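Hi R.,

Quick one: here's the Tryptophan-rich sensory protein sequence you asked about.
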Amino acid sequence: MIASTPRQTSRADSISVLLGLLFVCYAVAALGALVTAHEVPAWYATLSKPNFSPPNWIFAPVWTVLYGLMAVAAWLVWRTPTSGSNSTSRRSGLILFALQLLLNFLWTPVFFRFHQLLPALVVILCLWGLILLTALRFWKVDRLAGGLMLPYLVWVTFATALNYEIYRLN
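And here's the predicted structure, written out as tokens:
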């Protein structure tokens, strides 16, 4: 299904849900930033990194955009009508979204706070799989929502390679 008529909710409810999703996604970002703030200069800076490692300043703007895209994607799926097979796809897509957001949240302290590079690699590999499943499920409900998840999948693919190389080099 390309896009469907939005579910029958008031404009205020729809905006409230979008704002709630943005709040949740940016709360995950803020908590991650709190964990990394001290660890980037104190620990991460001391690690051997591959030559494709980007400068540290790039992470905040990239993640800011990605969390916004994720929230809008989830909102597009939420506002899709809940009839027939679409209802199951919608529900499972939103559950997958919540699970991947949880793994996204967990990766940061595993990597930055506890300095556990191999367990962090396992977490990010699981995260990658959940993002893929979420994007596919979102695509089935609303193609724009599925497409909005693709930059996130690409970035986490890059982050996975970076995590692996940092593990290998250290």
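DSSP finds six helices and no strands in the chain.

Cheers,
M.
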